[in-house]
Design brief:
Shape: globular
Distance between the termini: 35 Å
Structural class: alpha/beta
Helix content: 25-40%
Number of strands: 10
Oligomer: single chain
CATH class of one domain: Alpha Beta
Largest sheet: 6 strands, mixed
Strand order of the largest sheet: 6-7-8-3-9-10
CATH superfamily of one domain: P-loop containing nucleotide triphosphate hydrolases
CATH architecture of one domain: 3-Layer(aba) Sandwich
CATH topology of one domain: Rossmann fold
Strand content: 15-25%
Order of helices and strands: EEEHEEHEHHHHEHEHEEHH
Length: 273
Amino acid sequence: MSGSLEIAAVTKTFRSGGPWGETVRAVDDVSLNVADKPTVLSLVGESGSGKTTLARLILGLLQPTLGTIRVGDYEVGRMRGRAARQAFMRDVQPIFQNPYDTFNPVRPVTDALFETAQNLTGASRRQAEALVAEALKTVGLELSEVEGKYQNAFSGGQLQRLSVARALIPKPKLIVADEPVSALDASLRMTVVNLFAELRDTLGISFVYVTHDLSTAYYISDQVAIMHRGKVVEAGAADRVLTHPEHDYTRRLVAAIPQVGVKWDDDFDAGVA
């Protein structure tokens, strides 16, 4: 499978207030494409813009009301049977907002890592250990320092790196990261964001990066899509959209943050982001 993503005229509606309530369009006729090359696409918008709903649609956790989503060879939502779903999950992995929700607090974190390896790849226990060790090493951790420990033994930043490691175990082509740094302090945010860029460049993984923070979106993105009230109001290359915005809503977002026109280096003071 490739890491390409095609979203074609996708709408997702919900009924608020019960069966006779108002129909809400959380995602409204959205079309986006990510080419078959390692790419970071940021979905940017305020709370309620529809970006998280769209991320959940890409992951197959929700079904579109209208339209289609294709990731590589898969039409999301049309997969039938456990084997097809497992194959999709090997290639498309999530990273969620709160790292404390990723692991069961009453079980060692490595239990979840080994289960991911065995369930998604069919690995034996020994093979699973090798896969887990490789994924941990990629995010700067060693199996020996993690094995047998519970989530309360780790900082928020370490837990988010463990979440990234879990997503890397099946060697995915696409990772959907929903507000993955919003629960971290400013210095740790840039550590995780830089890790995503490194994974794109070294492992060839594409990312859908969901965020309300234009600063980190500009820093990491190849493409951005600005969402407002369920619609994509502007999309394209990050440099173009965020330095020469055309839509009024994008202009307001850009005007609200400092230094969006500067590509920061690794010494950037994350405290201004």
